[in-house]
Please model this.
Amino acid sequence: MRIFTSITQWQAFRATVKAGPLGFVPTMGALHRGHMSLVEACRKQNAFTVVSVFVNPKQFDDGRDFEAYPSDHGQDLGRLKQAGVNAVLLPDSAQIYADGYRFRVTESEFSQRLCGAHRPGHFDGVLTVVMRLLNLVRPDNAYFGEKDYQQLQLIRDMAAAFFMPVNIIACATVREADGLAMSSRNQRLDTGQREKAAVLYAALKQSESATQARDTLIRQGFEVDYVEDIADRRLAAARLGNTRLIDNVQI
Ligand code: AMP
Model:
């Protein structure tokens, strides 16, 4: 497994990769089984698998959340090597944002709703980093989790809008035994919060309406950002203490 911290070195290497198709999984690290399911799908469908680990400062609307974001490169690299990944990109912010973030991708409708309404600038940060990473890696296929459903839709729409030559591939949400969607942020839950966290998925699935799901979450001590039904999905974000959880289910 080749590891690149230098974008220039990565680009020189990328020019030598001839075997196709090439698959890409962008992540922010602290890898869990959810991430690894994307890596497995990527490995199965491509001749060459690239994973990036980059905690993107521009998608954090809250500096404390960024500071507290978990990171363990040693463990991540061990898992990726074991999974048979061919190359890992570990760029730093100075290289990714050499322009000082003067150039960015903004979507003006769907990105303003749901998570976007509660996290100003979040999706500009997400779309901009994904655009930059896709341009660097030039994959045939790129893998994203349904857990971040709004993000997935926005990335799909961006790729189509800019005629980007990449297939955006959606992967199902991987859950803990009690239904909690796996997330790097789950590490920050204390024991009591962790037990309660499973209520989020149960409420989304079992309630007859978004309003009923919201009421259940509030009763259980969640601070609810939103619960909304859009087309055939029910999406929610809610906080337990300082930890913000998101999830969505098909209805
Ligand atoms: P992150 O490191 O949180 O930016 O996530 C990197 C990718 O992994 C994104 O496409 C996420 O949607 C995906 N992902 C995160 N958690 C899960 C999960 N529990 N199941 C499936 N995909 C996930």
